[in-house]
Design brief:
The complex is a heterodimer of chains A (163) and B (263). In chain A, 31% of the residues lie in helices and 17% in strands. With 163 residues, chain A is α+β, with helices and mostly antiparallel strands. The longest helix of chain A is centred in the middle third of the chain and has 22 residues. By secondary structure, chain B is mainly alpha-helical. Chain B has one domain. Chain B is 72% helix and 0% strand. Chain B is built from 13 helices and no strands. Classes of the chains: A alpha+beta (163), B mainly alpha (263). At the A-B interface, helix 1, helix 2 and helix 3 of A face helix 1, helix 4, helix 5, helix 6 and helix 7 of B.
């Protein structure tokens, strides 16, 4: 399932292509009948086993004023767009394609941001542990999880302290 | 026919005020998200500059803050003096900053809402051009009405082609998607049988596919506008799509002009 934001984005973005998409939008929203890709991350404890996989994109609770003003929601949707675009590129392009590599760097930054915001600290582990992230398709009806991409072990020290 | 010039001016004024509100809120939201564009943030400049081309001078962290503040100022001008040459300049400037924001986020910030607001602002720039025939102003407004109608029809047709929309499965899946932050009580109260979801899905497809009737009759136009507002308010409340509500609201007055001009 896709919001349509990721459709036909499998090209390297340029100022001209951005303008063309604004001038000639596809208007195809919520069209593709496929399950949405989910970005997950987990801690890899140096002493114990790995932590639980947790979602990296977490929207904040909805308030009435979010009908008009919702920066946290806009950020979550933009982050999910990154994830969906990366998935589309992984499916349609080679992993080493420039657009795909650019998306990977952005998604890694998204995972690092979630890590620095302590998304995964509620599970276990201490500072200094490694971590990793993965892209999955979860089918609740079938009870299956398809792993599309799984990163190598990443040293915790590489996680930035944005915010 | 004699009432059309006044209706055109009123339509442009309302579209300008609503588009200014949308552009201002977009700018304030991005200012609130500045940390995500700073060093160490998700959309940090070094990861994106390759797609910016010569515009990178306006898209670095500090320069882009200036762009967003300028966007706020232009929104105030557009709301204050719609239908004037200054309003035309403000609308064109806002279309430009809207495009810059999309480029800053590698193509789009929030999907189709960026494109709709760009369409409205571009149409408003044309609709306020000084020293041109009124047919040019009409063309600006009718272009927005045409794109607005197309947006519903296109979205409706692609949904109608998907069996999962008719079974209610697609709507259920969207309601359960964590990234949209659907309030927790919605999935909890979702019925086990899919009949209500099927009805809601079929209603949405019907509304979107039948949107062109708004051009034919004023009563039908009012019904379509009311249904559109209900739809966008609902998606803003459930899925957090506030930018869609703002952008499409700015476009909806163009339909009212279209039905009087064409119908």
């Amino acid at each position: 399932m896709s919001s349509g934001a990721t459709r036909r984005l499998s090209i390297v973005t340029t100022p001209a292509s951005t303008l063309l998409r604004q001038l000639f939008p596809s208007w195809e929203f919520f069209d593709v009948a496929r399950l949405p890709p989910t970005l997950q991350l987990r801690r890899l404890s140096l002493q114990g086993g790995p932590g639980y996989w947790l979602g990296a994109v977490h929207p904040s609770p909805r308030r009435w004023w979010h009908l008009l003003y919702n920066p946290a929601g806009t950020q979550s949707l933009a982050a999910q767009t990154l994830v969906e675009r990366w998935y589309t590129e992984l499916v349609e392009l080679e992993a080493l394609a420039p657009a795909c590599r650019e998306s990977l760097a952005l998604v890694k930054a998204l995972a690092e941001s979630a890590l620095s915001e302590s998304v995964v600290t509620k599970v276990d582990a201490a500072e200094g542990d490694d971590w990793q992230f993965r892209l999955v398709i979860i089918d609740d009806d079938e009870g299956t999880t398809e792993v599309v991409y799984e990163s190598d072990r990443i040293p915790r020290v590489s996680a930035p302290t944005a915010r | 026919m004699s009432e059309l010039p006044a209706l055109l001016a009123t339509t442009i004024a309302w579209m300008s005020r609503l588009a200014a509100l949308a552009a201002a809120i977009n700018a304030i939201e991005l200012l609130a998200m500045r940390h995500t564009m700073a060093d160490g943030g998700i959309w940090r400049a070094p990861l994106l500059t390759s797609s910016w081309g010569a515009w990178r001078v306006l898209l670095g962290a500090r320069a882009f803050t200036v762009v967003l503040v300028t966007q706020l100022a232009m929104a105030v001008i557009l709301a204050a003096v719609p239908g004037t040459a200054l309003g035309c300049i403000a609308a064109a400037a806002l279309a430009f900053t809207s495009w810059l924001s999309a480029l800053r986020f590698r193509g789009n910030v929030n999907g189709g809402s960026d494109a709709m607001l760009f369409t409205v602002l571009g149409g408003l720039a044309v609709a306020q051009l000084p020293n041109v025939a009124s047919v040019v102003h009409e063309a600006g407004v009718l272009y927005v009405a045409a794109q607005l109608t197309l947006s519903y029809v296109r979205a409706g047709i692609v949904k109608a082609k998907e069996r999962s929309w008719w079974t209610g499965h697609a709507l259920a899946a969207f309601l359960a998607l964590p990234a949209y932050g659907v309030p927790a009580w919605v999935p909890r109260r979702m019925p086990n049988d899919r009949i209500p979801l099927r009805i809601a899905s079929a209603g949405l497809i019907g509304f979107e596919c039948l949107a062109p009737v708004a051009w034919l009759d004023p009563i039908a136009c009012i019904v379509v506008i009311a249904m559109a507002l209900t739809f966008h308010i609902t998606t803003a409340a459930l899925f957090g799509l506030n930018r869609f509500l703002l952008a499409w609201s700015a476009a909806l007055p163009s339909l009212w002009y279209a039905v009087h001009r064409v119908g």
